[in-house]
Amino acid sequence: MTERVEGHGGALALAALRAHGVREMFTLSGGHVFPLYDAAHTSGFPLYDVRHEQSAVFAAEAVAKLQRRPGLAVLTAGPGVTNGISGLTSAFFNASPVLVLGGRAPQFRWGSGSLQEMDHLPLVAPVTKHAETVFTADDIPRAVSAALTTALTPHRGPVFLDFPLEAIFSVGDADLPAPTPVAPVEPDPDEVTKAARLIAAAARPVIIAGSDVYAGDAVAALREAAEALQVPVFTNGMGRGALPPEHPLAFAKARRVALGDADVVVVVGTPLDFRLSFGDFGDAAVVHVVDAPTQRAGHVQPAASPAGDLRLILSAFADHTGDRADHADWIERLRTAEDAARARDAAEMAADTDPIRPARVYGELRRALAPDAITIGDGGDFVSYAGRYLEPSQPGTWLDPGPYGCLGTGMGYAMGARVSHPDRQVCVLMGDGAAGFSLMDVESLVRQRLPVVIVVGNNGIWGLEKHPMRAMYGYDVAADLQPELRYDRVVEALGGAGETVAKAADLRPALGRAFDAGVPYLVNVLTDPADAYPRSSNLA
Predict the structure, then answer these.
(1) What is the mean pLDDT of residues 43-50?
(2) Quick check: is 425 in a domain?
C-alpha cells in the first residue's frame, strides 16, 4: 500500500531517505537547508556537523563504503556545494553510493543576485551518476527515491539533488515511493565461460581483487572461486582482507614476481588504471571482471571481460567443470617469494633507528590494531608504507582515498567510520602534508564525542614530490613543511589529546595510550625525511 506523506520539503525528503535505509546526516550549517535540519531534529534523526563541507561528503562516503548503503551529506548553496566537490569526485571514482542534497537560491528571484546564487548542476554533473534540481516540494520524495536507486545501481556512485529555497521551505504532500530493489546484472554466460576456461587452463594464473568485490558483497564468492580453481589472490582497496593473511591462497608481498611471470591475470572489481600498470602485464592474457559493462577498460583489449553481478560471475568460475591445470608448483613458487619478502619486511618493521623509519611505525601498529579495526589512509608517502606493511585480516576494514588520490579524507572518513562502528578501533594514518587539509575537523570529533586515533608520519616534507623532483632536476621547490611541527598540540587545543614521539622505543607505549584515551588522540611521529617510499609516481 502506498504511503502518503506531507510536510515541508525537508520532512518529505527525510521520509524518502528513511525508507531507503539512510540513518544519519552529515552537514555544515547553512540557512538554505534549515528544513532538513528541522526534520532531523524533530524526529530524532542523527545529525553530525563538520567544519568544512568536504569532511561531510567524506563522512557520508565512509558510511557508504563500510556499510554498503547510501551515505548522506547536506550542503548549503553556492560555496557549500563547491567545497564538497572533491568529496563527490572521490565518491565517483570509488563507486560510492553517496547522496548530496544541496540548498539553492530561490528560483522566483533567479538571475537577480540572491545570496550564493549559482547553478550547481554543470559543476557536479561530470562527477555524479545523476544531478537534478527539484523545483517543487511535492516532487521531492520522488526525486530522492529515484536518486538513491540510481546511486545503488551498478556501477554504483554519487548522486546530487538541490532544492530552491521556496521548494524546500514550502509544504507539500506526495506518495512515498517504495524502495525499488536493485536487480542483479546478469552477465553474458558465454563470456563467463570463456573467462573460466582461460583461468582454469592457465599454468600461472593470478587474481587481483579490488573494492567492488566488497561493495558487491562478493567476498564469499571470491574465496569460493579462488579455492575451486586454486588461484593465488592479491587485493587492493577495499578488497584487502577478502582472504585473511593466513589463507594459503592469500598473497601480498610477491606481487612483482606474480605479475612478471603470470600467463593469465584476472582483475576483479577494480579498474585497469595506474595502480595496475594500466593493464599491461607483458605477455599475460588479461581477464577483466567488472560489475557493469560501462566499467570495461577502453585502453586495453582483454582476452575476456565478463560484466555483471560479481557474485554470479565468481560463483560460475567456481562451478566450472572443464579441464583444470595443476597450479601447485606456481603457488609454491609465489609462497617462497612471499615468505622471503615477509622476512625482509619483518626486519624493517623492527628497525631500532632514530630518526624513526616509517616501517617501524607500522610494525608497532600491527601489534596495536585489533583484527576488526578500521584503518584509514590519508596521505602520500607515509600512507604508501601502510599499503605495504599492514595486512587487514577482515574485509571492509580498509579505507583509502582510492584512484582519485584526494588528500583530506582523514577526518571525514574517521567520523563516518566511528558512526558506523562505535565499538571498534578507528585509526587514521596521516602524512604531515595531509594533516593540513582536515585536521581542524578534530574539533567536530571532540564535540560530538567520536574518539579516534590519528598517527601522523611527520617528516617535514611532501615526500612523494620532494625526492622525485630532486631526482629529475637536481633541486626541489614547494616541497618543504615545518620540521617537527607539533600536530599533537593542535589536537590538544581542539579538545583532544596527543604526544610527539621521536624515538622508536617510545612508539609502543604511545600507541597504547592513544587507543586507551577515549578522545581523539594524535601520535605525532617524527620520521626520517630521507626514507622515501620506493616507487615511481605513475603520473602517466
Answers:
(1) 98
(2) yes
